[in-house]
Amino acid sequence: MQPLKRSLLACLALLCAPVVFAWDEVPLSPPVENRAAFNQSAPAVATDGTNYLVVWQDDRGSIWKESIFGSLLGPDGKVLDPAPIAIDVPTGGNAPAAFTARAVWTGDAYLVGWQTFPRDNPAARSFRYVRLDREGHTLGPARVIPDAAQVWGLASAGGRTLVIFTNNFTKSIVFGQLLGDQGEPLGGRFAFMHGRYDWGASVASNGESFYVVWSRDGASPNTQIIGAPVSLEGQIGAERVLAEKASAFPVVASNGTTYLAVYPGDGTAIITEELDGSGASLKRIVHTDGIGAYEERGLGAYGRGYALLAASSAQTLRAFLLDEQGELTGSLPVAATALSGVTLAANARGTVAAWNDATVQGVAAVTGNDIYSDLLDADPGRQLISTSAPRQSMLRIAGDGTGFLSAWIEGRDRAELRIGRISAGGRPLDGEGIVVATGVEQPPALTFDGANYVLAWIAPGEHCTVRVMRISPAGALLDGPSGRTALDGCAISVGLGANGHESLLAWSTSVPTGEPFPEKRVTLQVVRVRQNGTIDDAPRDVPSDRLRALDLSIGWSNDTWLLAWTSYFDFQDCGPCDPPLTFYDIQAARLTGELALIDAEPIRLTDSGFERAPSVGANGDDFLVAWASGGDYYNLHNLFASRIPRRGDPAEVTPLGRGAAPSVVALEGDYFIAFDDGPLYLLDYQRGSLQAFSMGDNGPQHDVRLAVANGKLTAAYLREASEPQYKYVDRAFLRFFGSLRRSRAVRK
User: Fold this and answer.
1) What's phi and psi for 146, nearest 5 deg?
2) Phi, psi dihedral angles at 79 (to 5 degrees)
3) Is 60 exceeded by the pLDDT of residue 22?
4) pLDDT tens per residue across span 406-464
5) pLDDT per position as a tens digit, 120-165
């Protein structure tokens, strides 16, 4: 029976077809505390007089999905709750960006704001802000200040908050906006006098007024430092040039009475200037020794004076103590280096510093900077506050008839390839998993050969060899802790399939030919891996006519192997395009059990240019290949499938409707396809029945994989886990499908 098109599926009531139901979700492994994935940056810190709130920009969900997180610290500077506060976590593929957090205590609540802009119009920047109570709960809806290209600082006094921002990047002007005690705008924005380009501002309050300092690029090559007072009613006082020539942005703070401005002078000198409420200079000190030239500075009250937190280009972090007039009185030890984003907040009990620093982790973990904090005192001891469970990715799963083995990449200090067994009842058997390799950057491959599981991966480094390991159903590593080498070359993708008594291992390598626009630069090869672990000495070539072969997927039916892959090529002759357009299509090849090619040329299933991620299912009679397609590489939102016989031409390509990342398996002669389209769906290909089996209530779900054991289906998938123990990172979960039942669900 030919599968139904999605247009017909919408009209089919599913009560006439049996579908399976899914058991409760099971986590693949328990969470542990770890550095958050991807990049954390741009911290800000505020205090309510007792506790502290640190906020920052956080990319833990995706490098394309910036969010704002926060953490509450107690009077001793220690984190009060290990679960961070998710202040703004965008949802949806085109959610606005959120970056560069700011925070201030307004007298009865924290005001936290961040930059944001639409994905399709990055120039339309605005400042979005919310109020939080002492426990971090949101008070009321978010508000927006439009046309705010960069917000430099917040300060609060007398129930008023002053927001200082610049409007754009071509003709930058410093603006102020007053907010009331509930965060409501008080009047319109007001502009400070401006030169050719004004930016790099800082603002503070002494409890009775505000003072703003900023950089100005004048007509000469020199950058001036400008300062001006602002009343609680928003009246700008006399502006004054604090320095005619400076090399970086200024900062300003108040000890509750006067102000202290700190800015770089000429060369390596650092200048401190005490100011009264009107901005008049009380004392100006040029520090040529003791402090030195630091590129990042944070300034805050410390006792009756100030603490200057400074980070150099060598990422050395220092904390200098200044009296109320700016005289250097000493320093405090800080057990850290810092990359950027140094910031301070002080109350009567102490001063907390926060900053971001780089960490060294594997490429596949895609980690960058972390947020640290420290209560400045004689006992240095930074603490990591941007934490989460380790991010999991590149998930694979296979069944042995009674249970399952999963493989995945876990982002800890390095990207670790881990494996873990799961019982047929859905119980993980290996805790946090067994580490078999580190630094792995490409997806592994996994299958069951009838006796043992077989795992293949590409080793990290310049040689990028293919490694193979057999794992028994009892969890024994049969080829040692690091496996054996199958290819002593440089692979870019691997795939595995099995026929019950041996496995087929495939890999692709990129072979430069030296030609400007080569027609063939890819080598695609296969070898057999026996159940005893021996590997064919001579790999067999599989024809491919493109630049690269990726996403290798393999199936076995009766006497035939089918290998499908994404072919990758650059279309150079495209007129004005720069860089050249990259296209992807789906190809396949059939081989006999002895690896003789059945097809002299690749089977081309598609040729439109934006197809990826084929998945092969095999039911013993033929094969089903499903893949995703779309308008471009980043929007693969339609599914297609084609049935391929063991001999002869493939069937016509069938559209399946919306979806991405399909996974195909055969069960009792029937094909099942799992995919994501918001929720996760399971499609019975022959019957045309469709069921959503995971609704994504706790985060978006993607990269689903199907496996069969004991005559039942299991789905493994990733989702952005919002539960406190995971903290908004991608984690792997399982759902086990039970007996058949009828469903009335119809998907439009």
Assistant:
1) -75, 165
2) -65, 130
3) no
4) 999 998 878 899 999 999 888 899 999 999 999 898 999 999 999 999 999 999 876 78
5) 776 778 999 999 999 999 999 999 999 898 899 999 999 999 999 9
With cut-offs at 50, 70 and 90, classify the pLDDT of residue 297.
confident
Domain with CATH 2.130.10.120 in the chain: 34-300+307-388
* Short-list 747, 515, 467, 498, CA closest to 616: 498
- Ranges in the chain annotated CATH 2.130.10.10: 6-30+390-742
CATH class for the domain made up of 6-30+390-742: mainly beta
Q: What are phi and psi of 58, to 5 degrees?
A: -140, 130
- Fold classification of 34-300+307-388 is Methylamine Dehydrogenase; Chain H (2.130.10)
604-658 pLDDT tens trace: 998 766 788 899 999 999 999 999 987 554 555 889 999 999 999 999 999 998 9
Burial 277-287 (b: 16+ CB within 10 A, else e): bebeeeeeeeb
How far apart CA 593 and CA 613 sit, in angstroms, is 25
Residue 60 has pLDDT above 90, yes or no: no
Measured at the CA of 362, the angle between CA 361 and CA 368, to 5 degrees, comes to 45
Q: Edge-to-edge strand order for the sheet containing 636-645?
A: 611-618, 622-630, 636-645, 654-658
Q: Give pTM, 2 decimals.
A: 0.83
Are residues 478 and 472 in contact, defined by beta-carbon separation less than 8 angstroms? yes
Q: What's the half-sphere exposure (Cβ side, CA atoms, 13 Å) at 682?
A: 28
> Which has the closest alpha carbon to 728: 66, 116, 134, 119?
66
pLDDT for res 170: 60
- Nearby residues of 65 by Cβ (< 8 Å), 6 or more positions away: 59, 90, 95
Eight-class DSSP state of 16: G
Strands (E), 577-684: 581-592, 603-604, 611-618, 622-630, 636-645, 654-658, 660-667, 670-676, 680-684
Q: Are 505 and 535 in contact (CB under 8 A)?
A: yes
C-alpha 454/C-alpha 479 separation (Å) is: 10
Which of 200-204, 382-386, 709-713: highest mean pLDDT? 200-204
